[in-house]
Amino acid sequence: MIRNSETTPDPDKVIHIPCADSFSVIVQLRDFNSHRLWNGKKLVFDGGHPQKSISIAYLGDEIKCQHRATYDNVRFMLPRASIKEFLYEEGQRMSAEPERIIGVDDPVVYHLALALLPSFARAGERNELFIEQVMLALLTHVQDRFASTPVPACTGKGLAPWQLRRAKELIAGHLSEGVSVARLAEECGLSRSYFTKAFKCSTGVSPHEWLMRMRVDRAKELMLGSDEPLSQIGVACGFSDQPHFSRIFLRLAGASPSTWRRVKRQRADAAL
Hints:
Elements: E1 2-6, E2 15-16, E3 22-28, E4 32-39, E5 42-49, E6 53-58, E7 63-67, E8 71-79, H1 80-89, E9 101-105, H2 107-121, H3 128-146, H4 161-173, H5 181-188, H6 192-203, H7 207-225, H8 230-236, H9 242-253, H10 257-271
Antiparallel strand pairs: 1-8, 2-7, 3-6, 3-8, 4-5, 4-7, 6-9
GO cellular component, one term: cytoplasm
GO molecular function, one term: sequence-specific DNA binding
Keywords: DNA-binding, Transcription, Transcription regulation
């Protein structure tokens, strides 16, 4: 994922897009009022893109463009090989590529991009499990809406007991470094997107949220059972730094780590 923005672009500069065997999905974070796009020598677009609109282009084509107004957008790169691998996992033996589109309103892709922005703004807090889930959601949505290969939905039955147990064991065993959706799905004998949906059917939360809750639970144990500084406890539980630890802990526990520890100890002392 790449964020591109410029307040005073050169309106006459022609930008040649590097060729690649990939699809580019671009979503506008704000209105982009003037843009020109060529495919080969043919001008295929001359106009504006409203906020939340997306465009999909195949970078194997000869593409060039002009940015003629202020813009702020996010670009997702979807290699053709990754799309084929994803479809094969989903049982789709015939690959259908996304349509080339320009300026289609799509709040889903817009909000997926917004969800990822903090992870890239604070590199130390990047959680690969979360990023992988968002990219799987993007692939599923793009294929469902813009290609003739709808991805099978979760049946609502969730994971089998042994699958859920194995997934929880793997997440618990990798609290500090995290574990990928690919590894979790492989251990359960499922595709990545189906596993993610089935896990949420079984637990009510995504694998990433489950990981965050387990990290907070482990932090609580360490906070009550030791006098280690909160910064060390946070890092030991897989948080990138003290602010990251405090923010997630506050959201899930309803109090900051320092307040939670103080209140728990005061109650324990009062009970003696």
